[in-house]
Design a protein that fits this description.
The complex is a heterodimer. Helix content of chain A is 14%, strand content 42%. Chain A is mainly β. Chain A has a domain of 125 residues: Methylamine Dehydrogenase, Chain H. In chain A, strands 6-7-8-9-13 form a five-stranded mixed sheet, with no helix packed on it. In chain A, β29 and β30 form a beta hairpin. The radius of gyration of chain A is 36 Å and the shape is globular. In chain B, the strands form seven sheets. A four-stranded antiparallel sheet of chain B has the order 1-28-27-26, with no helix packed on it. In chain B, α4 packs antiparallel against α5, α5 packs antiparallel against α7 and α9 runs parallel beside α11. Chain B folds into two domains: 289 residues, 7 Propeller (Methylamine Dehydrogenase, Chain H); 118 residues. The C terminus of chain B is likely disordered. The chains are: A mainly beta, B alpha+beta. At the A-B interface, β42 and β46 of A face β29 of B. Chain B: It is found in: Nucleus, Nucleolus. Chain B: Its main location: nucleus. Chain B: One of its GO terms (cellular component) is nucleolus. Chain B: One of its GO terms (biological process) is positive regulation of transcription by RNA polymerase I.
Chain lengths: 831, 523
């Protein structure tokens, strides 16, 4: 076993940002949202991440502005702490240790010193029942405070944070669960419960999904599973309550929200349409359609200028109050599974996987940001549950990133499978992929594997697709037709089959001279040049699961894993099995930049990683239990700069980094100790002006400005004796009302004069500068002279050393050199 | 925000031959003019001087036609028997012709009576030509000899008796007055130099030679015989360059296009093929009604004249550029250019504040209706008469889109008699089209399910349904036939292809799988 002391498995970006409702700061410039174990602060105008508020050790379950200080925010987490942050500077102010996992957090400006948290009923175990409790904040100045003083307010509440809200100046709190709405009045200390029937005649479900209270009126808006919105009034009476119904949504309303003034009601759901209802004129609605994915949360800034919607595709949309989208913050989109493998775009080095339905997303691993979405399906997405949509199931890049091949499929219950193979060419001008060829129905059944030929130097690229219909096809770029003005397109070059078995995996060798295709338990090796079947290899029993050619020095090896827990390595020169070992490999992967291979083995509910070279029996690196569950997707991403680690166990991470997706769709990676240290250091170094969002542009300009400032500071530090704002006179001046002061023009000239540096000083400085310049010149000329004299000296030396061997011609030449006129140098010196 | 994505209309590959530059060029001829001659047209020769009249040798006559006349401007009828090979001299003044009665006659183009009669051959003279110095005549005859004659003295200069069979074709060099080539039924081509008394080069064609052609540079020689057209490099001593086998009957005539880029060959199989002379690929093909014996191409390819065995002379004139323009002008009347650039080429000044106007998305009518989820209306729009007949792919695309949205059933249901019969009519027209079948078959099933209950209530709909049933039965029959043919072909292929053994490592310790033959199908 190899030691792996300094390599750790870490989460790497891509966490959910739509998990909880985002929060807009008071001035609408910053946007806070819970993202995994930290709180992210985005700029609402530039979409850039300003801060990562790190400190929680478990999932953050709620973010909230401090009602008593609008520059601070509370966050609660499942690790049982509530933390208070200064989010503009990214500083942790206080940590309150509660001790139980907290599921959501509420506060009201009218309840000073009290936070309301949702915790589970039975305090020790994870039960399904939750209660709302009031947490009294201890008056201690310490950073870390134990807060154990809390009292239950409402029992049996929903764990959904959207189902609890404060109403009208904190007078009451409303909570909805199942078919019941409960309103608790703090003054009366009394709660009212209203129930709906399970469903009405048409079979629609009346279950509550969310609620919002009107800030001025006694009105509660509730959203329901059947798409209705009910507006409740008169709920401080047990019997005489009324409600009216609004219905536009066709399926569950996931969020309703009143604007701070109470003039509008916003609602959203699966349809991904933001609906703005006028309060009291509910027939008038505004719509903002095609927001991309189902709306999960709606937030409104305290001044009502901006709305923010969170979407199910891990996206935050910032919307101006005139119902216009102003910014989109997109995280890594993660569905239930990644149908396409993880890939790395050779050009942008971005991670590519399927994102939104029918799209491929390009995700920058370095910056934890989605670069762009490529629309593969190019069809209007219908937001309706239960509808079969086209899905991108396979994608492949060629070596240089010039071509992208995608397969989309749609399977309906009773009709045939619809398959499309699309080939995209990289367009230098638009810097994106442009559709080149669409092949509808490339195969008769599902495509099981697809790969591009790897050769970097060949002009014609080849794509091989294998399908369940028992054939594999080779596609090649055909030359353009003679007269057609359209460019070259792809067409089928070869169709092959083997004993009517189903091909499962295909793989090109590193130089592109061999193609290995596995047909159940047989590996066939073909020559792509002549389409000859060269040889067959097999190791029964057990169908082949993965195939990989060795790279670089190990390119004579072909590795395969079988379903019967065997990892085999064939030598292609002798066509024999070189070695095999028994392990349940769920994924076999080769590093494109080295000869290393990575094998993920599932063992007792956990996954182990082995990194090895095909030529050596001993693994380079092994790590037990990197995560629970199976790992089925992983990728080697090339590093931007090479690491220079010489330890044997971490050398495999020098050129590329291994990323993998766990069963629970977490993106993880391996990190060495040295790298971690470096990252920490760089994050500390990066202190940013808090008022401005950090864009690359800013970094560029800001640095420049900083340098300038530093320069100025240096130059003025000597003579700056007294700061003007410190003087008593100026203080007085600033505090007197403007109408009793002398005219601004008079004051201005005085003020400007006070800022000026005395005249004589500057002149002197100038002079000295001039002198310096002159002296510089002189130095330069002196240098020249020296060089010339040096040259002479050298020749003289040469003369001396080589004197006996000089021929007549050389002597003559020397004499000529001696006679050369150097008067121009002296004239230069004089001037 | 993202805008509405319109329905995708599938682009289906165009069936039929591809349009290339050559097809455009060679199709740019008017409908052929057909003239009935008295017998098989054996030779066509264009006068080298304007107005490029051409001599047509048919049976016992030679007619001379003007470039645009359908009546002969001149005819020579003084032949005792079938005339052969009427050819113009390079100045267009004289015409020579052989005859079945072995006499070679020389005519003045403006006169009627033969100026000279060359007697000496013992059998029919099938080949006549002028040498490039204009003073001699080359003749080739069925008596296996070829001779050179002096025109002024009307005497025989030399006679070569090297061929061992009929001489049926011959050509003189345009650059050298002494060189000429003859082709014979003894499968050989012989190059003669009048300055020596025997042939200087012999090439074996392999088939009876029917026609010869020299390239303008005279470095290459093309010969036709049997089903083959062969190209020879004379400068390399008669080395064969290419052998073309594109006809399935004897090739009778060869011709070169005016720019020397295309070679034309005519054959008894009723085709004229056009080859590219750089790669010798067939780039175009003409079909004619009968076997072709002779072919002529006017200078600048102004007209193609073809003579056939049934005595019909077919003349195709090139369309003048004005005519083609006129036609295209009629097809598309577009608004003036300035309408498009109106306001677009305005360059904003420095202080101008630019207000960007959102680009308005233009959607088709059915897309607009789909956007508002009016599915039935969208289908109605797609089923409008013009779309249904002219662009069925649009209708199919809309049906597909509705199916994708899961609302096809709603769109199809609730139609009255007229609407339903319209829909059925469309299905009857397009259901069996292989391009549309995957989409239309489920839709048809859906329609039958929906309207099951109303069958028999309307005679109009019943008629359509009956038609649909007939169509399907017929189609099923076709498919069965096709599968039978496929099965037959498969047996033939498997029996004819050699079984290929796959090399497998001999040491079959861990690798001992039965050696398999890969079934390969190459598209």
């Amino acid at each position: 076993m190899v030691e792996h002391g300094d390599i750790r498995v870490v989460h790497r970006g891509g966490s959910k940002i739509n998990f909880r409702e985002p929060v807009l700061s008071h001035d609408s410039r910053l946007l806070l949202c819970a993202s995994g174990e930290c709180v992210k602060v985005f700029s609402s105008s530039t979409e850039e991440c300003v801060h990562d508020l790190q400190g929680h050790t478990d999932l953050v379950t709620g973010v909230l502005l401090n009602p008593s200080n609008h520059l601070q925010a509370y966050s609660c987490s499942a690790d049982g702490t509530v933390r208070l942050w200064d989010f503009t500077d990214g500083i942790l102010i206080k940590t309150l240790v509660v001790g139980f996992p907290i599921y959501s957090l509420y506060a009201s400006a009218h309840h000073n010193g009290v936070l309301f948290i949702v915790i589970s009923m039975a305090s020790d175990k994870r039960s399904e029942l939750f209660q709302l409790a009031a947490l009294h904040l201890p008056q201690s100045g310490d950073q870390l405070v134990e807060a154990r003083e809390f009292s239950s307010v409402l029992g049996d509440v929903s764990s959904n944070p959207a189902a609890i809200a404060f109403g009208q100046g904190g007078e009451y709190i409303a909570s909805a669960k199942g078919l019941h709405l409960e309103v608790y009045f703090f003054k009366k200390q009394k709660s009212y419960r209203f129930s709906l029937k399970e469903d009405n005649k048409k079979g629609a479900k009346n279950t509550f999904t969310c609620l919002s209270c009107h800030p001025k009126d006694d009105c509660i808006a509730t959203g329901h599973e059947d798409g209705k919105i009910r507006l409740w009034r008169n709920f401080n009476h047990k019997r005489e309550y009324t409600y009216s119904t609004l219905h536009w949504h066709h399926s569950a309303v996931s969020s309703v929200r009143f604007t701070p003034e109470g003039t509008n009601l916003l609602s959203g759901g699966v349809e991904s349409v933001l609906v703005q209802w006028r309060y009291n004129q509910e027939t008038q609605k505004d719509f903002l359609p095609r927001l991309g994915a189902a709306i999960t949360h709606i937030a409104v800034s305290p001044d009502g200028e901006l709305f923010c919607t969170a979407h199910s595709d891990n996206k935050l949309t910032v919307i101006q109050s005139c119902v216009k989208v102003s910014a989109v913050i997109q995280g890594l989109v993660k569905g239930e599974s990644v149908r396409t493998d993880l890939m790395v775009d050779p050009r942008s080095k971005a991670l590519v996987l399927n994102g939104k339905p029918g799209h491929l997303q390009f995700y920058s691993l370095q910056r934890d940001k989605q670069l762009y979405n490529l629309d593969i399906v190019q069809q209007e997405y219908i937001h309706e549950s239960g509808l079969q949509q086209f899905e991108v199931v396979k994608a492949a890049f060629d070596t240089r990133g010039n071509w992208l091949a995608t397969v989309e499929e749609r399977k309906q219950k009773d009709s045939t499978l619809e398959l499309n193979l699309k080939l995209w060419a990289y367009d230098e001008q638009t810097q994106s992929f442009v559709l080149n060829t669409t092949v509808s129905g490339p195969h008769e059944a599902r495509i099981t594997a697809m790969c591009f030929c790897h050769t970097a130097d060949s002009q014609t690229t080849m794509l091989v697709s294998a399908s369940q219909d028992g054939h594999f096809k080779a596609w090649q770029l055909a030359e353009a037709a003679q007269t057609e003005d359209e460019g070259p397109f792809w067409s089928c070059d070869f169709v092959g089959a083997y004993h009517s078995l189903v091909p499962e995996c295909c793989c090109f060798s590193a130089d592109g001279s061999l193609l290995a295709i596995s047909f159940q338990e047989v590996v066939t090796v073909w020559s792509p040049a002549s389409w000859e079947l060269l040889t067959t290899l097999s190791q029964p029993p057990g169908a082949i699961r993965d195939l990989c050619f060795g790279r670089q020095s190990c390119s004579k090896y072909l590795l395969g894993t079988t379903a019967k827990n065997l990892l085999c390595c064939w030598n292609l020169l002798t066509c024999t099995l070189e070695w095999s070992t028994s392990m349940d490999v769920s994924l076999l992967l080769s590093d494109p930049l080295s000869e290393n291979m990575a094998a993920f083995c599932s063992h007792a509910g956990c996954t182990d990683l082995f990194v090895f070279k095909p030529s050596e029996p001993r693994p380079l690196f092994s790590h037990k239990a990197i995560c629970s569950g199976k790992v089925t997707r992983a990728v080697f991403a090339p590093r931007e700069e090479m690491l220079e680690s010489c330890e044997e166990s971490s050398q495999w991470l020098n050129r590329s980094q291994l990323y993998f997706l766990t069963q629970y769709m977490d993106l993880m990676t391996f990190i060495t100790k040295a790298e971690e240290d470096r990252l920490m250091a760089s994050s500390k170094r990066l202190v940013i002006d808090d008022s401005v969002a950090v864009t690359p542009f800013y970094l560029l300009l800001g640095k420049h400005r900083q340098q300038q400032q530093e320069k100025q500071d240096r130059s003025f530090s000597a003579e700056r004796n007294q700061l003007p704002q410190g003087s008593v006179a100026i203080k007085e001046l600033l505090h007197t009302p403007a109408h009793v002061l002398p005219s601004a023009s008079f004051l201005c000239s005085m003020f400007v004069r006070s800022l000026l540096i005395s005249v004589t000083d500057s002149r002197e400085e100038k002079k000295s500068e001039e002198e310096e310049m002159e002296s510089d010149k002189e130095e330069e000329s002196e240098c020249e002279m020296e060089a010339s004299t040096m040259g002479q000296g050298q020749t003289a030396e040469a003369q001396e050393t080589a004197a006996p061997a000089l021929t007549k011609a050389q002597a003559r030449e020397l004499r000529r050199v001696k006679k050369l006129d150097h008067s121009w140098l002296s004239s230069l010196l004089d001037s | 925000m993202a805008s509405f994505k319109p329905t995708k209309i599938q682009v289906y590959p165009k069936l039929g031959e591809k349009v290339t530059q050559d097809t455009l060029y060679w199709k740019n001829y008017k409908a052929p003019v057909q003239i009935k001659e008295f017998g098989a047209v054996t030779n066509i020769d264009f006068s080298p001087v304007a107005p490029h009249n051409y001599a047509v040798t048919a049976f016992t006559r030679i007619h001379i036609y003007g470039p645009f006349s359908q009546e002969p401007v001149k005819s020579f009828t003084r032949f005792k028997d079938t005339a052969y090979c009427g050819r113009f001299r390079s100045d267009g003044q004289l015409l020579v012709a052989g005859c079945e009665d072995s006499v070679v006659r020389l005519f003045d183009v403006s006169g009627k009576v033969a100026l000279r009669m060359f007697k000496g051959h013992t059998k029919a003279v099938r080949v006549t030509d002028f040498t490039s110095d204009r003073y001699h005549i080359l003749t080739g005859s069925d008596d296996y000899t070829c001779r050179l004659w002096d025109i002024p003295n009307s005497t025989e200069l030399t006679s070569y008796q090297e061929h061992t069979d009929y001489i049926r074709c011959g050509i003189t060099s345009k650059l050298n007055r002494d060189l000429f080539i003859t082709g014979s039924y003894d499968h050989t081509l012989k190059l003669f130099d009048a300055r020596v008394n025997k042939s200087v080069m012999t090439m074996d064609h392999g088939q009876p030679v029917e026609s010869l052609l020299l390239y303008p540079s005279e470095g290459l020689l093309v010969s036709a015989g049997g089903r083959y057209v062969k190209v020879w490099d004379l400068l390399k001593g008669g080395q064969p360059l290419v052998s073309l086998k594109n006809h399935h009957k004897t090739v009778t005539c060869l011709c070169l296009s005016s720019n020397g880029q295309r070679l034309l060959s005519a054959s008894l199989d009723r085709h004229v093929k056009v080859y590219n002379t750089t790669n010798y690929k067939v780039v175009h093909n003409f079909d004619y009604a009968a076997s072709i014996l002779s072919l002529g191409l006017a200078p600048d390819d102004e007209s193609i004249v073809v003579g056939m065995t049934n005595g019909i002379l077919s003349i195709k004139h090139r369309k003048s550029s004005e005519e083609t323009k006129e036609i295209s002008g009629q097809q598309k009347r577009r608004p003036a250019y300035r309408v498009f650039v109106k306001g677009k080429n305005y360059v904003p000044k420095q202080d101008d504040y630019l207000v960007s106007k959102p680009v308005k998305q233009h959607l088709a009518k059915y897309d607009k209706q789909l956007k508002r989820f009016n599915v039935s209306k969208a289908l109605d729009t797609a089923l409008e008469t013009w779309t249904r007949f002219r662009k069925p792919e649009i209708t199919v695309a809309v049906i597909k889109e509705l199916d994708r949205r899961g609302t096809l059933k709603n769109a199809l249901a609730g139609r009255d008699e007229r609407g339903l019969s319209q829909l059925l009519n469309f299905l009857v027209g397009n259901l069996v089209d292989p391009r549309f079948a995957p989409v239309l078959v489920p839709a048809t099933e859906m329609i039958l399910d929906i309207y099951q209950s109303v069958i028999g209530q309307s005679p109009v709909v019943d008629v359509q349904l009956q038609r649909l049933q007939d169509l399907l039965e017929r189609e099923i029959g076709y498919q069965q036939d096709l599968l039978e043919v496929l099965g037959m072909l498969d047996t033939m292929f498997t029996s004819s292809l050699p079984r290929k053994e796959v090399p497998c490592s001999g040491i079959s310790r861990p690798n001992g799988l039965a050696q398999g033959d890969a079934s390969l199908t190459v598209l």
